[in-house]
Amino acid sequence: MFLLVICILASFWPGGVVSVKLEQPKLSETKLSGKSVQISCKADELANNYIHWYRHLVGEGPTRILYFDKSSTNPTAINDQGFPSDKFDILKREENQYILKIHSAKESDSGMYYCASWDTH
Question: Does residue 86 sit within a domain?
């Protein structure tokens, strides 16, 4: 049985005149293989409605998993190629709190996950 270790990077990406404030309260998450993992992102003061989730594996650059429009009442993820929606999904828990859910996590899902957004001018 393998342990899955997820590292979470708190993302504060400033942009333009309006600040972007993203907060990921947990620094890490450890789960047994086969269990689901939920990673929270709180998004305040965004000029842009889009939030992106990335995964960064050791020795590789960050890769976007999915993005979604946070202004939607029930946001739907738009998954990037190689990140199927039955494996990676988003949930809206409460106002401005969004969850990346990794279903049936396995050791190869270990890595650093972070949410991101940026201001458009």
Answer: yes
Q: Output the domain CATH number for residue 63.
A: 2.60.40.10
- Domain extent, residue 37, equals 3-116
CB-based contact 37:44 (threshold 8 Å)? no
- Is 121 a domain residue? no
How far is Cα 97 from Cα 23, in angstroms, rounded to an integer?
9
Q: Distance (Å, rounded) from C-alpha 53 to C-alpha 51?
A: 7
E strand or H helix that includes residue 51? strand 50-56
Please state, in angstroms and rounded to a whole number, the distance separating the CA atoms of residues 95 and 100.
Answer: 15
For residue 43, the cross-strand partners are: 22
pLDDT at 1 over 50: no
DSSP helix, strand, coil percent of the chain (3-state; round to 5): 0, 45, 50
Count of structural domains, the chain: 1
- Please write the tens of the pLDDT for every residue from 50-69: 889 999 998 999 999 999 88
